[in-house]
Amino acid sequence: MKSALEATKDWLEGAVIGHNFCPFARREFVNNRIKFSIVETEVGLEEALERLVDELRALDESDIETTLLVFTADFKRFDVFIDLMELGDQLIDALEYRGIYQLAHFHPMYLFDGEAPDAASHFTNRSPYPTLHLLREASLENVLKDKTESDDIVAANIATCEQLGNAALQNALHHYKEG
Q1: Strand order in the sheet with 34-39
Q2: Which of 22, 31, 97, 135 is deepest in the core (most CB within 10 A)?
Q3: Are 5 and 36 in contact (CB under 8 A)?
Q4: How crowded is the C-beta side of 52, counted as CA atoms within 13 Å?
C-alpha cells in the first residue's frame, strides 16, 4: 500500500492532471507549488478545522499556490466529511478569507446532490482520501480568464468521466491508493 502522500500525488498526476480536470494543476505540480499536508491520525472536526486555519495562515506567509489537506484516518463517511467542508467554508467567511481563498473538496465516496448514485460525474471529485483543497482566488480567476467558462470545464470533466466509465475510474482510484 502506498503512503497517503504517494497516493495523493499519483491521483493528482494521473486523474486531475492526466484528465485535465483542473486548468492550472499541471503548472503548479511541475513548479512544486502545491503543499501536501497529510493528517494521519484521527483528529475530529474541531482539530481538523484548526488544521485548516493553520494552512490558511501558512498560505498567507508563503509563495505556495495551493494546499491539499488530506485526512487518512478521519472523515471516511461522506456525510461527516460534508459537515467538515461546510464548517470549513463558514470558517473562511468568519476569518474574512472569502475572495482570497476558495475551498474545494474531494472524497473517495463523493456524491453530487441530485445525481444518480452510479453517475460517472462523481469521479470528478473522488480522491484516494478525504481532502480539502485551498486555492488562491486570484490565481483561479487568472487561469479562468484565458479559458472557456467554468461551466464548460465542468461539462468537459463530466464528459471525460462518462467516456472512461465507472469501472475504469474506480479501478484507477483503487490503483492510486493501493498501487
Answers
A1: 34-39, 66-71, 131-136, 101-106
A2: 22
A3: yes
A4: 31
Q: Is the dihedral of CA 69, 73, 78, 83 positive or negative?
A: negative
pTM to 2 decimal places: 0.92
In tens, the pLDDT along 52-98 reads 999 999 999 999 999 999 999 999 999 999 999 999 999 999 999 99
Domain ranges of the chain: 4-178
- Amino acid at position 168, single letter: A
pLDDT of 5 > 90? The answer is yes
Q: What is the DSSP letter of 98?
A: B
Q: How many CA atoms lie within 13 A of 75 on its CB side?
A: 30
CB 163 within 8 A of CB 102: no
Distance, in Å, from the CA atom of 22 to the CA atom of 15, rounded to the nearest integer, reads 10
Per the listing, cell 487568472 goes with 142
What are the C-alpha distances in Å from 120 to residues 16, 77, 81, 116, 170?
15, 19, 20, 9, 10
Summarize pLDDT for 119-174 with one digit per residue, the tens: 999 999 999 999 999 999 987 766 666 555 566 788 889 999 999 999 999 999 99
CB 101 within 8 A of CB 89: no
Other beta carbons within 10 angstroms of residue 148's beta carbon come to 11
Distance of CA 93 to the CA centre of its chain: 19
